[in-house]
Write a structure and sequence with these properties.
The complex is a heterodimer of chains A (107) and B (166). Chain A has 107 residues and is an all-alpha fold. Chain A has one domain: Helix Hairpins (Orthogonal Bundle). In chain A, helix 1 runs antiparallel to helix 2 and helix 2 runs antiparallel to helix 3. By secondary structure, chain B is mostly helical. Chain B has two domains: 83 residues, Four Helix Bundle (Hemerythrin (Met), subunit A) (Up-down Bundle), CATH 1.20.120; 43 residues. In chain B, 70% of the residues lie in helices and 0% in strands. Chain B is globular. Classes of the chains: A mainly alpha (107), B mainly alpha (166). At the A-B interface, helix 1, helix 2 and helix 3 of A face helix 1, helix 2, helix 3, helix 4 and helix 5 of B.
Amino acid sequence: MTFGAPAGATQFMALSAVLFSLGLYGALSRKNAVMVLMSLELMANAVNLNLVALSRFTDPAAMTGQYFAVFSMVVSAAEIGLGLALVLAIYRQKKTIELEAMEELKG
Amino acid sequence: MAETVDGIAFFLLAFASIGGAVMMLSTRNVVHAAFWLLEVMLATAGLYLLLDAEFLALVQALVYAGAVSVLVLFTIMLTLRRREDAVRPFEPGWGALALAALFGGAMLLAISRAQLPIGAMPASVPTTADFGRVLFTQWAVPFEIASLVLLVALVGAVWWSGGDRR
C-alpha cells in the first residue's frame, strides 16, 4: 500500500490485527495487573474496529457491525470496571498488584 | 459513496493508534502508559468517524477516552504507595512477544488472502437518527440486556471495592 492510497476493508483489518497482536503481547507479558487490564482494553478496541470496518465495507446500510460494536463496548466497559474493582480488592488484602503475588493456586 | 475511505486520513490515524499502542507497551511508567492508551482510544474514535459511524465515535470518546481512562488512572494512583512505584522494571517477555508476533503474522497472512463481498453504500448514508431508530426496534431486547449487564457490573464493582464494612 502506498502512502495516501484509498483504504478499504483489507487495510482496516490489517490495522486491527496489528493492534490486537500488540494487546495480546501486553496481556501476556506485563506483571502489573493494571497494565494487563489496559492491554485487554486494547484488544477489545481492535475487535470493535474490525466489526465497524467490515460492516462499513460489506453491508453499510444495515449497520449490523455498529450494533455489535456498541454491545461489545458495553461488555468491555463492565469488564474494565469489575477488573479494576478486583485489583483494588486485591491491593487491600496484599498491598501489591504484582501478578507474582497471586500464586496461591500454583501447583 | 465510494467503497474506500480517504487514504491520508487513514494513514495518519493508523499511525497514531499503532504508535500509541507501541508507546503504551514500551514506556516503563504506568501513568504514561495510561495516557498512551487514551491516545489510542481517541485515534480509534477518529477511525470510526472515517467509517461513517458518528455515534460510535462519540461513544468511544465518552466511554473509553472519558470514563475508562479516569478509572484506570484512579486505580493506578490508589495502588501506588510511592511516586517511584510507577516506574516499572524492563519486562520484555520474549515468549509472549514471539507468540503475539506469530499470531499477528498468521492473521495478516489470512487477511491478505481473504476475498470479501463488497457492498455499496446507499445514496443516503445512514445517520445517527437511523441508527437509534433501528437500535430501539430491532435491537431492543439486546439493549435492555446490556443495561442489565451494566447494572450488575456496577453493583459488583461497588461490592468488591467497597472496603471492610461487612
